[in-house]
């Protein structure tokens, strides 16, 4: 048997239960991974509440690191004992052991410990595709990052700085402002009530070529007002709720804007893209350009407490669940 956090119904953190489940066996092309660490991500909340659908009962979680303990037939490029990490679906990471398609795994460099590996894969690969593929950020540009002291946020700030960009971060408290500044944000705005005016002042009226907005419903329209003509609105999360339908005429009126609603799943669907993204991520972390801040750890059995903290905006940086 193995242990897992499962839900039998959608709802609040109280629907998560620490249960015995049979240890799965890897089929062809699969690996059985013994988790050393599991990453906490906002998407886990969406699957718990039912905003994102899953078949019930379900084991939550999309990210982990650990050691391969068994391999199915046909897996040739991995061995039992390899240190590995992964990010993305299908859900099932909140478990001491899980089976996963071997082509979703990457080997963890020796320099990266298990906690860091579990913390960095989903949020770091997201930062990689957002900054390098969705809108390739260039040196000298000024960009806007919401939830700048969060898991994805702290990585975005540091990586954008490393690319030579200037970062305006948006956070909710003074303490988070200090943290964002310490991780590369050149300017920090607290709250979004006066955000377009602040962006106008900071950029001397030019506004920004890209906004990375993971807050969703509460900030979508404000973010559009921060963009320069032909700017790119990257709405990539729903922390405050999903963005309601938008009148496309707004994009015309606000300067021929572009909008995209990307997901990591698309950007890592091809193994070559996953490996390229992971290698870039490992490089910036190994070189010290990007530090992964595991600012909270919880026992995996207490994942509900981690969800409560994340939803109450009490976490900063990344959070790891330890089996
Ligand atoms: N599309 C993708 O590929 C992809 C991949 C990874 C993550 N994401 C998204 O990126 C976002 C960040 O993920 P994360 O795991 O790193 O979480 P996180 O940023 O560490 O936590 C969420 C943060 O959002 C801010 N926030 C603003 N309004 C909020 C509200 N009403 N309720 C709760 N939080 C609110 C809070 O920061 P302040 O207190 O500073 O406002 C909070 O700390 C999430 O929306 C997630 O879904 C998307």
Overview of this structure, please?
- The protein is α/β, with parallel strands linked by helices and 323 residues long.
- It has 2 domains: 2-121 and 270-322, Medium-chain alcohol dehydrogenases, catalytic domain (Quinone Oxidoreductase, Chain A, domain 1), CATH 3.90.180.10; 139-261, Rossmann fold (3-Layer(aba) Sandwich).
- It is 30% helix and 28% strand.
- It is built from 10 helices and 16 strands.
- It has helices at residues 42-49, 114-134, 151-162, 174-182, 195-202, 220-224, 249-253, 264-267, 271-286, 303-311, and strands spanning 2-7, 16-21, 30-40, 58-59, 63-71, 83-87, 97-101, 106-107, 142-145, 166-171, 187-190, 208-213, 227-235, 258-260, 294-299, 318-322.
- Strands 3, 5, 6, 7, 8, 15 and 16 form a 7-stranded mixed beta sheet that branches. It has a 6-stranded parallel beta sheet with strand order 11-10-9-12-13-14, with helices on both faces.
- Helix 7 (249-253) links the parallel strand 13 and strand 14.
- The longest helix has 21 residues, at 114-134.
- The two termini are 14 Å apart.
- The mean pLDDT is 98.
- The site of NADP nicotinamide-adenine-dinucleotide phosphate (NAP) has 30 residues, from helix 1, helix 2, helix 3 and helix 10.
* Rg calculated over all Cα atoms: 20 Å
Question: What is the domain tally?
Answer: 2
What is the CATH T-level topology of the largest domain? Quinone Oxidoreductase, Chain A, domain 1
Structural class: alpha/beta
Spans where pLDDT lies below 50 across 5 or more residues: none
Total number of strands: 16
* Count, helices: 10
Task: Report how far the terminal alpha carbons are from each other.
Answer: 14 Å
Order of helices and strands: EEEHEEEEEHEHEHEHEHEHEHHEHE
Task: Give the CATH superfamily of the largest domain.
Answer: Medium-chain alcohol dehydrogenases, catalytic domain
**Distinct ligand kinds:** NADP nicotinamide-adenine-dinucleotide phosphate
Q: Hey, roughly how much beta strand do the residues contain? A: 25-35%
CATH class of the largest domain: Alpha Beta
Which whole number gives the mean pLDDT? 98
């Amino acid at each position: 048997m193995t242990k897992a956090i499962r839900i039998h119904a959608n709802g609040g953190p109280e629907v998560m239960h620490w249960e015995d489940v049979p240890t799965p066996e890897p089929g062809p092309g699969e690996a059985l991974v013994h988790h050393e660490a599991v990453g906490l991500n906002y998407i886990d909340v969406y699957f718990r509440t039912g905003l994102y659908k899953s078949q019930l009962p379900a084991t939550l979680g999309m990210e982990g690191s650990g050691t391969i303990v068994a391999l199915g037939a046909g897996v040739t490029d991995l061995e039992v004992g390899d240190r590995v990490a992964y990010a993305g679906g299908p859900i099932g990471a909140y478990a001491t052991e899980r089976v996963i398609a071997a082509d979703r795994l990457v080997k963890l460099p020796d320099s990266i410990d298990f906690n860091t590996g579990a913390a960095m894969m989903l949020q770091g690969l997201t930062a990689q595709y957002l900054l390098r593929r969705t809108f390739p950020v260039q040196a000298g540009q000024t960009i806007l990052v919401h939830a700048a002291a969060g898991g994805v946020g702290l990585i975005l700030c540091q990586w954008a700085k490393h690319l030579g960009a200037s970062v305006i971060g948006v956070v909710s408290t003074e303490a988070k402002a200090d943290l964002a500044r310490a991780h590369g944000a050149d300017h920090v705005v607290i709250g979004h009530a006066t955000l377009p005016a602040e962006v106008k002042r900071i950029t001397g009226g030019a506004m920004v070529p890209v906004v990375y907005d993971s807050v969703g419903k509460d900030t979508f329209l404000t973010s559009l007002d921060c963009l320069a003509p032909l700017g790119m609105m990257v709405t990539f999360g729903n922390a405050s709720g999903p963005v309601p339908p938008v009148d496309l005429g707004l994009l015309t009126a606000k300067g021929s804007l572009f909008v995209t609603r990307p997901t990591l799943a698309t950007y890592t669907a091809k193994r070559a893209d996953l490996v390229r993204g992971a290698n870039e991520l490992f490089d910036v972390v190994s070189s010290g350009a990007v530090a992964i801040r595991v600012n909270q750890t919880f026992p995996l059995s207490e994942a509900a407490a981690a969800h409560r903290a994340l939803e109450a905006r009490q976490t900063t940086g990344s959070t790891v669940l330890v089996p």
